[in-house]
Amino acid sequence: MLNHSRQQGIASFPFANVVALSDGPRGNGSGVPYMFLTPLDFTSKDLKEDARATLMVTLAQGPYCTHKEMEPIDPRCARTILSGKVQAIDHKSPEYVVAREAIYGRHPSLKYMPRDHEFYFAKLKIFFIVVLDTFGGAKFVSVKDYYNPPVTKPSENYDEYMNYPMPYVNQF
Length: 172
Hints:
The protein has four helices and ten strands; from the N terminus they run E-E-E-E-H-E-H-E-H-E-E-H-E-E. By secondary structure, the protein is an alpha+beta fold. Strands 1, 2, 3, 4, 5, 6, 7 and 8 form an eight-stranded antiparallel sheet that branches. The chain has a two-stranded antiparallel sheet with strand order 9-10. Strand 9 and strand 10 form a beta hairpin. The radius of gyration is 18 Å and the shape is globular. The C terminus is likely disordered.
């Protein structure tokens, strides 16, 4: 995740850090980027003063691009960039259970983080989306379209998903 640093010596500089991230169970994600943060970390301290942040997820994070012999900068090694504001999730809200299941479902060892580190769940309230998945430039996606993707069918090849536009389903 990238945010504006508030750390002495680099205040206002862009600052990147690794965060635990999940949008739900594998194959049934909601698109909402949930995070697991601690107030002891640089990122959480920075976000307390300026909640703006950007996340990038890429196929280079898994085996897909390596298997296809693609470098991470190859546009076909798709990436999605999400910008917005990070919001802590109230432990009394129904969304807290959703966030907890999303994070622990993908990162089960995080259940055992030290309690005195006061970890909490948060989400990125998205307002800007860019996708780069082939040559020819990035695509800007509306938040509405992001949360309402076309119907997909799982392929037999790894965990990839192939989009079949509804009018053409019977032609394949």
